[in-house]
Specification:
The chain has ten helices and 13 strands. It is of the alpha/beta class. The chain has one domain: Ribokinase (UDP-N-acetylmuramoyl-L-alanine:D-glutamate ligase, 3-Layer(aba) Sandwich). The strands form two sheets. Strands 5-4-1-8-9-10-11-12-13 form a nine-stranded mixed β-sheet, sandwiched between helices. Strands 3-2-6-7 form a four-stranded mixed β-sheet. Strand 8, helix 5 and strand 9 form a beta-alpha-beta unit. Helix 6 packs across helix 7. The longest helix has 15 residues. The two termini are 21 Å apart.
Length: 328
Amino acid sequence: MLPPLTPERARAIMAALDRAHILVVGDVMLDTFVTGRVARLSPEAPVPVVLFDHESHRVGGAANVAHNVAALGGRSTLIGVTGNDEAASTLAGACRAAGITPVLVGDADRRTTMKMRIVTDRNQQVARVDYEVDTGLTAEVERQVVSAIEQRAADASAVVVSDYVKGCVTAKVMQAAIAAGRTRGIPVLVDPKVPHIATYAGATVITPNHHEAESATHLRVQTDDEARDAARRFLEQSTCEAVLMTRGDQGMWLLGPGVEGSLRAAAREVADVTGAGDTVIATLALTLASGATLVEAAHIANQAAGISVSRFGPAVVSPVELLAALGA
């Protein structure tokens, strides 16, 4: 087990969050919820008929990372790629409403990634429809993303790369993020996807979940010993400085310079794990940028994840809730 976080340190770290600026780069999404009441089964097929009540939108993917930063009091700038469509306008407006500065590069040949969930008034998901183009960026769009990173990193306290393999995180984009971190002397954190693991070399912290770690290392991750072995191999493969592996109800495993050990999951009823990884990396980046050690940041991110999974859909955590969870 890792050494505990004292209430005094938790309060000191949380008090400094509003001074940090996190630059988030990656695959942005619009989460749309079509909500209604299930009245009957369809006579056409064995599926429920949902009587429409209302539609709502939330920011998703890398935008949800930026939203989590803003909700905790940090300043967040978001760089991503969208289409030139209505969903892009909705996403940009939702970002601004959430306190995020959006820098969205429009590409006429793409559509904005949107996940439409049809849900009941009891938060039961009936179906999901995905609208997306996951091909790589054109040279011109990639150039604009790289340029935006170089400009917006000038006053950043940390950089987060949120990779959902939707096309934004190319090798050149990743290299620009790593270079910006080195130039500024700030941490670069990556929420990874296995196909791109080779491109993350040089990042400060990488945050795979245990499924991604198993896929990349070909090792089972169920026990602490297995988590330790997989984390070590994952770190070797990614050549990053540290790895924080999320393990669902088993908590987390942290491996970094001079530190290795587990964090037990906060005991909460799980409603929805959607976006929990976004909450983890946002909290980790913001606390590291606010003076926390890697172990302290992992403790705080672990508690934030516990709050997030207790809610339906992509969720954010407030400083008051987090302080209460930390016993501070």
